[in-house]
Amino acid sequence: MAFLEPAALAAVALMSFTSIAAADEVEPYKLSPGDSVEIGIAPIPDRTQRAVVQMDGNIALPEVGMVTVAGLTASQLQTRMQSLLPTKIFHVRLPDGREQMVVVKPDDVTAIIADYRPIYVTGDVLTPGQQAYRPLMTVRQALAVSGGLSLLRSRAGQTGPDPVDLRRDYETLWGDYTKDYFHAARIRAELQGEADFDKQTPQGSPLSPSLGAAIAQAEADALKIALSDFQQEQAFLEKGEKDAADQIEVLQKREQVEAESVKADEEDLARVTKAFDAGNLTNNRLSDVRRALLLSSSGALQTSVELMRARRQQEDYVRQRERNDNQRRIVLLTDLKDTNARLADVTARLHAASEKLQPTGASTGRPLPIAGETIQAQVTIVRRIGEEWRKLQADEDTIVMPGDTVEARFSSDLQSAAIQ
Fold this sequence. Notes:
With about 425 residues, the chain is of the alpha+beta class. It has helices spanning about 5-15, 20-25, 75-85, 140-145, 165-190, 210-275, 285-360, 415-420, and strands at about 35-40, 45-50, 60, 65-70, 90-95, 100, 110-115, 120-125, 130, 375-385, 390-395, 405-410. The strands form four sheets. Strands 9-8-12-10-11 form a five-stranded mixed beta sheet. Strands 2-1-7 form a three-stranded antiparallel beta sheet. A two-stranded antiparallel sheet has the order 3-4. Helix 5 (about 165-190) packs parallel to helix 6 (about 210-275).
């Protein structure tokens, strides 16, 4: 077998991979199908439109139609919209129902790239697949949102789930269990009217003590707020009930006084009427006595109405206080039931995850490489430049572009020697 000279090897490498420096010399990013743009008009805030660049490179805008934007940079898109939209007539509905025509100036138009095409991460990462792109995103960030590099996935002979994934799922389940555990303890304390509960982390938890204490403290703070709020509301209703009782007492005394006044006016009217019939009094005197009886009777009737209203209000306060307590207990019991159901489900999944972990020998540390080999991570970006796809060698600080495919592979000295 013939071996290539170093110069020939360099030529082959140059043909297979374009350096990332060459890619950095390309023009600013140009819109492509899959990107989303947002077009806004300052005088008409409700007319802000978001549109996705279609496969043919066009976007659809109301009152404008299809506009070709593929291949435009962000500044060119702004210029294109500023030259296009001011030629259209826009009608705005005013609050009073009238319609007003708005004249759009070029400076009123804004056009930005709202969302970029996603990137794709593949190879020896925990969760390969599609990821959302963010401006100035680096390879390091792309690998981070994909769960990071996974040496275990690079082992060609490995089958089944990654133990690191299993360990992560196991600890995530413990986090869910701990949250529901303390939530149930808090609900039981609130049902019993207690201001505290046992904050001891469940036995066997792999979570750090500080994390368990933070979860317990959050539930303790929620318990304190809930009890304080309920007690304040109940105290308000109790005060209203007491005020109503005091008002009833005052009205009852007034009712008694007015009843005596009515009785006295009735007796006075009887004497005056008898004297009037005998011709000893004038008609004016009889009218005054009748008027006095009418006023005292009206006052007594009004007092009776106020007394009935005060008693009804007192009953309403009592019913509202009982209703609040009953509704609160119903909500808490329902929440406790749901929390216990979640605890049962998480407990079952914890048992299953624990059984999966046992035969794999998984641990939080990464497995060591085979003795004598040096493990290195190589990153390649597959990017469309012009009409062709190119492979670009990259490192963790390389800027990723929308639509890129980031390939992360582990290689060793033994593998490199075998390939050569």
